[in-house]
Design goal:
mainly alpha, 0% strand
Length: 141
């Protein structure tokens, strides 16, 4: 999926995920009422392939309601940020996750604001916690 960016709300990107067969449980996780701000920011990083800091910087530098791919590309070149869309599928997929993972880990270690896990990690943590709760409930009966 290539991000549209726009207003950074992610509507076009979410519909693209749905069209391309994304597991609905992944999207359900980020649309629940109890979703934390960190989880929402991690999902935003997932949708746009940019860190929270990069998104804020991009929005600050472009005083517009909507931002297009060409603006993001110019901004990334000016700020020496490689665009994942320019990579082959395998390298792009790995880089897409690792970039977000390393930034989240550095925020976690430095106790800095922003998501301390990637979107995928938040989903897995939730799944594992709830899976074990279900298993323990069944075993405890």
């Amino acid at each position: 999926m290539s991000p549209v960016y726009g207003t950074f709300l992610g509507a076009a990107e979410i519909f693209s995920l749905m069209r391309n067969g994304c597991d609905p449980r992944f999207l359900d996780f980020f649309s629940r009422d109890t979703c934390s701000q960190e989880e929402i920011l991690a999902f935003q990083e997932f949708l746009f392939g940019l860190t929270t800091a990069e998104i804020k910087d991009l929005q600050k530098q472009n005083d517009r309601a909507a931002i297009g791919e060409d603006m993001v590309r110019q901004w990334s070149l000016k700020n020496d940020i490689s665009m994942i869309q320019d990579m082959d599928d395998t390298t792009g997929f790995y880089t897409f996750f690792m970039k977000r993972h390393l930034v989240a880990l550095s925020r976690q270690i430095g106790k800095l604001p922003g998501p301390h896990h990637t979107a995928e990690e938040y989903v897995m943590i939730h799944f594992i916690e709830n899976y074990w709760k279900e298993i323990l409930a069944v075993d405890g009966e």
